[in-house]
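My main concern about presentation is that the manuscript never shows what a single data entry looks like. For the editor and my fellow referees, an illustration may be useful. For illustration, here is how one protein appears when written out as sequence plus structure tokens:

***
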Amino acid sequence: MLLAGWLCQMAAAQTHEWTWMGGSEYANQAGTYGTLGVFAKSNIPGARDGAVSWTDHQGNVWLFGGSGTGAVQVGYLNDLWELKPSSGEWAWMGGSTKAGQEGVYGTRGVASASNAPGARYGAAGGTDLNGNLWLFGGSNGLNDLWEFNPSTKEWTWVSGSNLEEQPGSYGQKGVPATGNVPGGRSVAVLWFDLGGNIWLFGGNGEDSSGLTGSLNDLWEFNLSTKQWTWISGDNSANQPGVYGQLRIPAASNVPGARSGATGWVDLEGNLWLFGGSEGSSAQSYGELNDLWEFNSATREWAWMSGSTTVPCLADQPCGKAGVYGKLGVPGAANAPGGRDSAIGWTDRSGSFWLFGGNGFDSTGTDYYDILGELNDLWVFSPATNEWTWMAGSSTLGEVWSGLYAEAGVYGTLAVSSPNNVPGSRASAANWVDESGNLWLLGGEGFDSTAFHSPLNDLWRYSLPATAVPCATPVISPSPGTYPAPLKVTIGDSTNGAVIYYTLDGSAPSTSSLPYNGSITIEANTTVRAIAVAVDYSNSAPASAKFTIEPFVATPVFSLPAGGIYGAGQLMTISDATAGAEIFFTIDGSTPTTHSVRYISPFLINATMTIKAIAVAPGHSDSEIRWAFYRIVPSPSVLSDPATSISANGATLNAIANDWGWAGSSWFLYGTSASALTLSTAKVAFPAATSAQPFSAVVENLQNSTVYYFEPVVSSVGGMSYGRVLSFTTPGDCGCE
């Protein structure tokens, strides 16, 4: 039973702590039903797992069925309960106190007080935009769809069959039809999109041929037309996944077949799907820890994190071990181990919370075959795409010989404590209250004595009652008109905040671009941004409008920049922007529209620095183009008579001035004044501002022969030649 001090204790609860709020710390408890429709503090649902829970628009909690204990009997249940959080009291609202009850379907589409779904385990459910409760399928291959109106307290059989083990009727993919209906299944994922329509994924059940196995089909049910549409996935059981590229949505992507996956809907109405049993891109059995996002607008899946394969250990089920990291610290490498039948919630900030399930701890050991479950609590932030281990054990302990799990630590009823923690379990009921706290009820797991069986204990995990908004992002520089492309940065003072932004003026969301560094703005742009963080509501949007007047193209010079020439050069300046005017200077000063306007090519006949800009209407002035040009005179060369003339050799002489620019010198010579075919080696001519002599020795000449020679000097200013002189070698006597 629940304490009378429920409300007072709720006010005193500490955030991020578990509180045992009701039910028994011992397993296998029978339900206390009381009087039908009457709330009482002594009432409490019996122990169960695989039940369905909803929250209506008044914040009341509804619980249906599951596998467990009624008033006396054990089995599948169809009892309906309502919990009023304001008083902490339960009321038995419908169905039977006995197990194994058949359904009363009535007429399809007609509500009736006598209607009631049959007993079942592993049904899927949700609350529509009007606060009505919807129930689909469950154990024994059911595919019936029910609606419950909390105001009239009446059930309506809406779709599907009133028989068990029903195969799916898929029709044509993407085309709604009256004859379409998913096959019977249990432990599927069901959610509502922002338009109020139902979506259904996977589970364990019947495919189109009636084969029972894990499914990966995705369906949409339109509440207006009452028609199902097969959207994606396969119509055959046990199909592998198509993962594609990490975090890249694609029409071809699809999760592999699975049952017992955990799903939730983010603030934008997109589905997130975690783990489950069976189905992989590599094999068809194991405990998965892959995370997927489905965008109901684009109808595309994206694999967001986790493993695409399911490793196997000898003599053990297959699955991925958890990477826990440090308690309370998010990390890109963190990931829950592979599991199915975990419990999930979405908090006010859009973060997802995950608890327990059948699966793998940090050691990579899965004890599912010997009734082991987990009690670890995780939170996932869609903003950062990171997991954080928040509570519970990262390593399963041996509670009995060969049996591994964690017993519950209950503490004092309705008193929160950092030491409290629910025992390991799977398939519990769950909801979020109006204050944003997380609740779970029962499941199959371990009580305070480490005894394993269905439970009826009620727990609350406290989160901040009012989500404080993140600080509004700061966009720098200030909005305005800029003459050139600029880099824009976005910052936020909230610790751990992730920023999302748009560049088209549309409202940002967590589906927008994540901010990872400065943004280059090259055209007129409105930047809008929000900040998102765990335990905070989204910030107010920040907005900044940037107007960019495009640059005129930078002028182009016909001569290479930094040229050195020995004579005057003709310069042409052009620009690629239509209608641009060019202005230039030749003294190195900054050009403006008051400088000389370029009209036609001009002569560079002296050393100068030329700078130019281009301007055009509706444009920012171009960048400045500049270049330094040096006009260097060619060397002067004077020929001197040859000396040391012998029968077979002579020294050739000259004087040159290279005007301070180093170069090289040599002599051309030969026996014809018009054809100097021989040359001395080129030698370095040092830079100097005055005339310098240079010479070269020639050998192997013919005696009694007239020779002609011409000095040559080359520098950056060009190549210059001296006057052609001659000399005559003497005869064999060696005399002159």
The two ends are 140 Å apart (CA to CA). Residues 383 and 498 are 6 Å apart (CA to CA). The first strand starts at residue 18 and ends at 22. Residues 1-12, 280-284, 366-371 have pLDDT under 50 and may be disordered.
